Amino acid sequence: SVNLSQMDAIACFNLSHYELCFPQLNSSCRRTKRPHTEAVLIYILLSSISLLTATLNLLVIISISHFKQLHTPTNLLLLSLAVSDFFVGIIMSFQILLTDGCWFLGDLICSLFFILDFIVTSASVGTMVLISVDRYVAICIPLHYSTKITVRGVTICVCLCWVCSILYNGLIMNDNLKQPGRHNSCSGECVIVINHIAGVADLILTFTGPVTVIIVLYIRVFGVAVSQARAMRSHIAAVTLQRSETVTAKKSELKAARTLGVVVIVFLTCLCPYYCSSLVGQNAMFGVTSVPFETWLFYFNSCLNPVIYAFCYPWFLKSIKLIVTFKILQPDSCRANIL
Q1: Does residue 82 lie within any of the structural domains?
Q2: Among 75, 76, 115, 137, which is 20 to 30 Å from 21 by CA?
Q3: Which string of b and e fits 211-247 if b means at least 16 CB within 10 Å?
């Protein structure tokens, strides 16, 4: 048994590690106290990741939007992904405020924060599905690619993806918008509740279903890509000029498939822990007063995508050079040859 003096010592030890978010309120939540050096390092690290994520994806957005040579169906999908990743960088700046466990921006902003987070997540997953379909058609049925995958068609699909994400997440978050903060247990908390049916539907529509489609399509893509690569190696010595052009085109498509395959694999690696943790501890309640590792891993994926482009797409490095040197402000810079 523990005597009273020991219990008092334990209570004092616990209280020494916490302080109130709002000292003037008896109903205030408690915030975690950290050593000054540790707190500074955490803020610098997370702020750097947030700034880098927003900056790199903004460069992708400017590059694809500005240069006409980059107005291709595949790049429009990358543009959609960059937009969602840019918003993730913005969301991360709000998450930094939560490292000590307190939310100071009010209940309405809390609900809007969650809606933006859910919309961006849904749009990212939807865009990944579209990227997988794009690569499937390009590699598996290349003769129909130019007719089935067009700039206009991809633009419509991307717009529908975002509109559906907004409407869907607005629907499942409707109750939390009507009465923001009604599920908070103390002042300084940010919690929303989604009913069980909506939670199951969300898990299927934004994780299980899309991930299954992505995996199935890319298994097929890589199977065909491997067989095409073997065929090209076996006939490379006896090609004509016309055949050489065809081989070059195929190599370009295979390289794009590999690059986007890396993007998809990294995305799934960062996404699965996030949803699996939600699935294991699924109680339809989500709080942002504590930010677990898997959430930051999911957000960090948005910083990795532009880095992958920089290593795999020469046009991205060329466009960055033109942007940072302000040469994109010159007349007809949108028609510059960067491929």
Answers
A1: no
A2: 115
A3: bebbeebbeebbebbeebeeebeeeeeeeeeeeeeeb
CA distance to 71, 273, 296, 331, per residue, from 245 (Å): 22, 43, 44, 33
User: How far is the C-alpha of 263 from the C-alpha of 259, rounded, in Å?
Assistant: 7
| Closest by CA position to 191, among listed 204, 207, 173 | 173
- Domain residues for the domain of 250 are 101-233+240-312
Question: How buried is 274 (Cβ within 10 angstroms: 0-12 exposed, 13-18 middle, 19+ buried)?
Answer: buried
| CATH number of the domain bearing residue 290 | 1.20.1070.10
The chain-wide mean pLDDT, for the chain, equals 78
pLDDT score for 87: 93
Phi-psi domain of 101 (left: phi exceeds 0; alpha: psi -120 through 50; beta: other): left
CA distance 189 to 251: 53
pLDDT per residue over 134-185, tens digit each?
988 888 888 888 888 999 999 999 999 999 999 988 888 887 788 787 777 7
**Residue 223 within any structural domain of the chain:** yes
pLDDT in tens, 271-327: 777 777 665 544 444 444 444 667 777 788 888 888 887 677 888 888 988 998 988
Structure tokens at 6: 């020991």
* Residue from 245, 255, 271 nearest 315 by CA: 255
In tens, the pLDDT along 55-78 reads 999 999 999 999 999 999 989 999
Type and span of the H or E element at 121: helix 107-140
Contact (CB, 8 A) for 285 and 191:
yes
In a domain, 111, yes or no: yes
The residues with which 31 forms a beta bridge, in sequence order, are 19
Q: Which residues contact 135 (CB under 8 A, 6 or more apart)?
A: 217, 218, 221, 256, 257, 260, 261
Looking at residue 142, its pLDDT comes to 84
DSSP code for 72 = S
Domains held by the chain: number: 1
